[in-house]
Amino acid sequence: MAGRWRLGCPQVSTKQTQGAIKLKQVSYGTTAKPNNRARYAKHIIAVTSGKGGVGKSTVSVNLSIALAQLGHRVGLLDADVYGPDTPRMLQIENERVQWSDHNQMIPSENFGIKIMSVGLTTPTPDTPLVWRSSVAVSALMQFLEETAWGELDFLVIDMPPGTGDIQLTMAEELPITAAIIVTTPQQISLDDVSRAIMMLKETGIRIGGLVENMSYFIAPDTGAEYAIFGEGGGKYTATKYNIPLLGKVPLTMGIRKGSDRGRPSVALGSEDEKNYFRDIAKSLLVEIGID
Fold first, then answer.
1. Is it the case that residue 110 has pLDDT exceeding 80?
2. Is 172 contained in some domain?
3. Residue 81 is part of a domain; what is its CATH number?
4. Where are the alpha helices (DSSP H) in the chain?
5. pLDDT tens string 48-97
6. Residue 108 domain flag
7. Phi, psi (rounded to 5 degrees) for 285
8. C-alpha–C-alpha distance, residues 283 and 263, integer Å
9. Which of 197, 267, 277, 290 has the fewest CB atoms below 10 angstroms from its CB?
């Protein structure tokens, strides 16, 4: 497709340069498959969901850090362009993108991982992005190709929810190692997850597994567990589509506060909270054949 747009770097490019980012034309979807716009990454993990509000970004952030804790070099690309939440979750929401002497964007770093998000390119953290899908996709192509990621063992992509243009283009432009699907036990979420699973199967993307988030609520005063969104939905869906259930993450005050305050649970939470995400990372590695 010709006539796509991309983000351009400022005219003066130094490591201290920040500021206005303008759009230029870029092409994508023109080369024969398989394409690979992330040759610096050994493995690409797409974290997706059928709908918003299920904790996809929370899983993306904590999974990325868990992989880094296991000794891997990890980059996290926030591809959820209309709701870029990862900067706040990683305490970098007030940083703005900087450019290197080689006209590459310099990723932010925290908790042992590298991060790039469209949320770092706006004038302020609360500036909305009113982009058509073609512009959003083109911006993501630049994040893939013109960010100074260095060599990575894993590039984790926090995808937007649903089954739209961004998901389709990522499937065409990247050799995705595996996709992780995040859901809650709630039936309406599971309905949307079924659609996401079918889209991944139709595009030939391997499904590494399902994560059931907010599986149950743990009362902070008593420790009692309440299945406020229902129970068993994740296991049922995983069995129905013959995909692994990588793990179940409860809804706790610690995980919720950690996400809001930029204190990822896998790094700064309780031991139980750390282990929820570490176990998911270990299960994923087993599924894709990495010890």
1. yes
2. yes
3. 3.40.50.300
4. 56-69, 86-89, 133-145, 165-173, 187-202, 233-240, 253-261, 265-268, 271-287
5. 998 888 999 999 999 999 999 999 999 999 999 988 999 999 999 999 99
6. yes
7. -60, -40
8. 23
9. 290
Question: What is the residue whose two structure tokens read 């990454």?
Answer: 41
More confident of the two residues 5 and 244: 244
Q: How many structural domains compose the chain?
A: 1
Structure confidence at residue 4 as a pLDDT band (50, 70, 90): very low
Q: Percent helix, strand, coil in the chain (nearest 5)?
A: 35, 25, 40
Mean pLDDT in the chain?
88
Residue 213 β-bridge partners: 249
Using CA atoms in the order 240, 243, 247, 250, what is the torsion angle rounded to 10 degrees? -40
Q: Tell me how far apart the alpha carbons of residues 90 and 277 are, in angstroms, rounded to a whole number.
A: 16
Q: Cα(108)–Cα(87) distance, rounded to whole angstroms?
A: 9
Q: Each residue of 133-183: pLDDT tens digit?
A: 888 899 999 999 999 999 999 999 999 988 888 888 999 999 999 999 999
Question: How far is 235 from 226, CA to CA, in rounded Å?
Answer: 17
On whether residue 9 sits in a domain, the answer given is no
Q: Quick count: other Cβ atoms within 10 Å of Cβ 236? A: 13
Phi, psi torsion values for 56, nearest 5 degrees? -60, -45
Residue 31 falls inside a structural domain = no
Helix (H) or strand (E) holding 69: helix 56-69
- Residue 146: domain span: 50-287
The secondary structure of residue 119, as a DSSP letter, is G
Are the C-beta atoms of 268 and 62 separated by less than 8 Å?
A: no
- The Cβ of residue 159 has, within 10 Å, a number of other Cβ atoms equal to 27
* Paired sense of beta strands 4-8 and 22-26, if any: antiparallel
Whole-prediction pTM: 0.89
Instruction: Tell which residue, 80, 266, 67, has the closest CA to residue 170.
Output: 80
Tell me the residue length of the chain: 291
